[in-house]
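User: Sequence for protein-glutamine gamma-glutamyltransferase below. Tokens please.
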Amino acid sequence: MSDQDAPTTPSPAPAAPSPASVTSSPAPPPPSGRPPKVTNHGRSSVPISTSNSDFTDIPETEYFDAPGPRGYPPLTGYIDVSNVDMMRRPNERNKIEHHTEQYNSDQLIVRRGQEFKIKIDFNRPFNPAEDKFAVEFIIGSSPDYNKGTYIPVFPTAERQSAWKGRITDQMGTEVTMGITPLANCIVGKYSLYVAVSTPFGIRRTKRDRSRELYILFNPWASGDAVFLNDEREREECVMTEVGIIYHGSFDDVAERDWNYGQFNYGVLDACLYIMDRSEMPITNRGDPVKVTRKASAMLNARDDDGVLVGNWSGDYTYGVAPTSWTGSTEILLTYASSKMPVCFAQCWVYAAVFNTFLRCLGIPSRVVTNFYSAHDNDGNLKTDIILHDNGSIDRNRTKDSIWNYHCWNECYMTRPDLPAGFGGWQVVDATPQETSDGMYRCGPASVQAIKHGQICYPFDAAFVFAEINSDVVFYSRSKDGTLQPVKVNRRHVGRMVLTKALGNMTRRDITDQYKFSEGSAEERTVLEKAEEYGCSRDKSDFPVGDVDVILPSLEISMGESFNLTTEFINRSDKKRTVNVYVSGSVVYYTGVISSEFLFETPTVKIGPNKTVQEVMEVKSEDYMRKLVDQANLNFIVSGKVLETGQIISAMKVVALRNPKLLVEVSGGDRVSEEMMVSVQFTNPFTFSLENVYIRMEGPGLMSPKVKYYSLIPEGASLTWTESFSPQRTGLTRVIATLDCPALRQVQGQATFTVNP
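Assistant: Structure tokens for protein-glutamine gamma-glutamyltransferase:
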């Protein structure tokens, strides 16, 4: 109840050995078994609190003086607390005003920097002139006033602590008290006590789990570091549960629905457990920079047994295929209950679950997709592709890769650690690509710093800058092993950056937030600035060639045979002869080749100012048995013009079209009325599908459900029907996926409105 540190009882120091006990006997053998747990004893008198689930026991009675001859005087006969009403029901003003009414929780959930109210019922009417009380908030196992983990809140203006308190209403024995946490207070779960003062000591309420409350970040409060002064952005980036994650390729964008489920039962506790598991000090959990950086490491299982195990191999025998997930809830609840990393994830799963974590804690966030995202192993601004002397690709020596797309997150916050102007949207990425300060994590990196080439600022801005600005440099490797740059493509990487639009299910192009227009004066200035901070580029300047090669866009359904037409254009007044290498490979979306199914080496002769087409047949049986996760075919044409020595090249990713799930909703469309959802699928292939899993879920509709089918024969159909009762009004959707080893990334959804 005081403004001072909570009393602590340091552990007694071990007794020193007497001189007689000191002998020169041999040192004891090293202990066997598990090593002892490392503690802070000897460095800190009070253990550093790193768990939000641990609370210290606060004494119910504290006397001011030592006991007299007859012991302590009784504290009865003075004002006492009969009941505390946390005003935690969803329809009460606390949750409505704090935008937390959608959380499926029995506890009070509020946001910092904004007043909330509780009701205290005393055993008699409260008299401000005579009676004194305080509401005490405790978080963690080592409460300390100076560290913000013990906060007494007083009802009178004459005596105030860090958090403001006031009596807003009094009726009979009941007092309504308004409490305003600091806008930078610790985010997490607090215990609440009410302490009354008597002439002899303090008497407080017992610990009661129903009086625990959660305090979150507050993007509606101007004093909070995550304040976002745009209602549409707040609604989308904090409150929206259903998202669209973009994938595919630049010229063939596909969509994946995802249920973030940040308000589902148990998700908030799971998010707090993630920070506990990381052993993040409680005192750091009010700083969004520290929280997001720690979480970017904890969302992947590398280094620290975090939430998700990454797997790009195509073999998901001992887990769930990344393409099978429909939302974050199952992943987070499984991690919190099993205390073990969940299998498996790829970049969009990391980004989607991270998005749930951020929105659940109140940090505005969104999932962003960068098309043709460079993964540069050399730490420069070049993606190196090595060619043989004849113009074909040397796959053994080409180490850098270009992902068809890569998903990361943006979160919104101030950056007091950076110069003015670099706050706002920050890139954070949980996909384990490269280490940062010794751990697999990335960010927060200022989007403004990335756009303006100020990559010296923390955290990891240079890595993100390279992902969207790398040049693709083709090198010719001679027989003696020397490399000579022969072509540079400065426009391939970072072709487009997408996120979901505000308030609707369409996409929003935010490329201009990351980079200036290609070839503009601003872009040149930015690249020069980046070079000052160590991001070297290839300055080679090659004459414009007179022969071009073009690969057309293709829309191919899985299982179809098709023709690949390659067009060669001669813009000179002389005949040109090109030795061409056409390669078709099954690739992962990361650009890594699984297997090659096509290799042709035609010699193309082109007349002056003429165009020639080479047509190659691609049969379904050539690629179907080699397909991996996302059914991507990568075609690369390279070659050398005999007359001029010019190197030509073209790359095209073709994402095969998968069959769809048909999802239909029927029945009433009102809250608590029973409805039905059916998922229908027909196997269109000439082979059976084995070990098939179908998943479906919907925010405010149903928890994740799974159905297993051991076999779906060729041409066979199935229908799976489930009942559910909507819990909330508004626009929502049911999301479903079908997944098996022979067929990944089959999806369907049904959107509808729930009425009151």
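The chain has four domains: 34-216, 231-532, 547-655, 662-754.
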